[in-house]
Amino acid sequence: MSDNPILVATTRTEFGKGAARRARRAQMVPGVVYGHGETTHLDIPEHDLFLIVRGNKNALVELKIDGTSQLALVKDIQRHPVKRNLLHVDFLAVKAGEKVDVEVAIVVVGEAAPGTTHNVEEHTVTVKAPATDIPEAIEVDVTGLEAGTVVRVSDLVLPANVECELDAEQDVVIISELAAEPEEEAPAEAEGDAE
């Protein structure tokens, strides 16, 4: 029925570090789903969760908890600082059609005018989007843009029903001239010429 990945979770009845360690030894990730006035503590199969979140930090999943279904958005993942394995996950319970605040990556496409480069000022933007239709990224097309051009939040092309939460005048991408590269043999002369 749902196009969202399904995670079969079990309600956690034990709490504390010992319980979390036992869950992790059993290849389960402790987690919590909150929202709509309720909080439920869960254990989620680590491998299944990893496959869902590895390429999408705003993954929408269908949690199957003790026979019931709940749409939920991955809100936060804690990873081990060295091993990078999943230690804990927070989900936000959502309903179809409900709008949620999420961070979405900015992706630059195209080539700016010759002799220019682009600088990304905002690598992510916070948007309000339908929980069931969160964009994976927002593209900024810099094709042919000249030096001095500034792409602002107000210039972003957002999908239908998606609103950006940042100030409309916030710079996102700036096109600037490529700095002339000094000749390798004489860096001191190049500095003198620049002044």
TrEMBL record:
<dbReference type="GO" id="GO:0006412">
    <property type="term" value="P:translation"/>
</dbReference>
<dbReference type="GO" id="GO:0003735">
    <property type="term" value="F:structural constituent of ribosome"/>
</dbReference>
<feature type="domain" description="Large ribosomal subunit protein bL25 beta">
    <location>
        <begin position="99"/>
        <end position="176"/>
    </location>
</feature>
<comment type="subunit">
    <text>Part of the 50S ribosomal subunit; part of the 5S rRNA/L5/L18/L25 subcomplex. Contacts the 5S rRNA. Binds to the 5S rRNA independently of L5 and L18.</text>
</comment>
<keyword id="KW-0689">Ribosomal protein</keyword>
<dbReference type="InterPro" id="IPR011035">
    <property type="entry name" value="Ribosomal_bL25/Gln-tRNA_synth"/>
</dbReference>
<dbReference type="GO" id="GO:0008097">
    <property type="term" value="F:5S rRNA binding"/>
</dbReference>
<dbReference type="InterPro" id="IPR020930">
    <property type="entry name" value="Ribosomal_uL5_bac-type"/>
</dbReference>
<dbReference type="InterPro" id="IPR020057">
    <property type="entry name" value="Ribosomal_bL25_b-dom"/>
</dbReference>
<keyword id="KW-0694">RNA-binding</keyword>
<comment type="function">
    <text>This is one of the proteins that binds to the 5S RNA in the ribosome where it forms part of the central protuberance.</text>
</comment>
<dbReference type="InterPro" id="IPR037121">
    <property type="entry name" value="Ribosomal_bL25_C"/>
</dbReference>
<dbReference type="Pfam" id="PF14693">
    <property type="entry name" value="Ribosomal_TL5_C"/>
</dbReference>
<keyword id="KW-0699">rRNA-binding</keyword>
<dbReference type="GO" id="GO:0022625">
    <property type="term" value="C:cytosolic large ribosomal subunit"/>
</dbReference>
<dbReference type="InterPro" id="IPR020056">
    <property type="entry name" value="Rbsml_bL25/Gln-tRNA_synth_N"/>
</dbReference>
<dbReference type="InterPro" id="IPR029751">
    <property type="entry name" value="Ribosomal_L25_dom"/>
</dbReference>
<comment type="similarity">
    <text>Belongs to the bacterial ribosomal protein bL25 family. CTC subfamily.</text>
</comment>
<dbReference type="Pfam" id="PF01386">
    <property type="entry name" value="Ribosomal_L25p"/>
</dbReference>
<feature type="domain" description="Large ribosomal subunit protein bL25 L25">
    <location>
        <begin position="7"/>
        <end position="91"/>
    </location>
</feature>
<keyword id="KW-0687">Ribonucleoprotein</keyword>
<dbReference type="InterPro" id="IPR001021">
    <property type="entry name" value="Ribosomal_bL25_long"/>
</dbReference>
<protein>
    <recommendedName>
        <fullName>Large ribosomal subunit protein bL25</fullName>
    </recommendedName>
</protein>
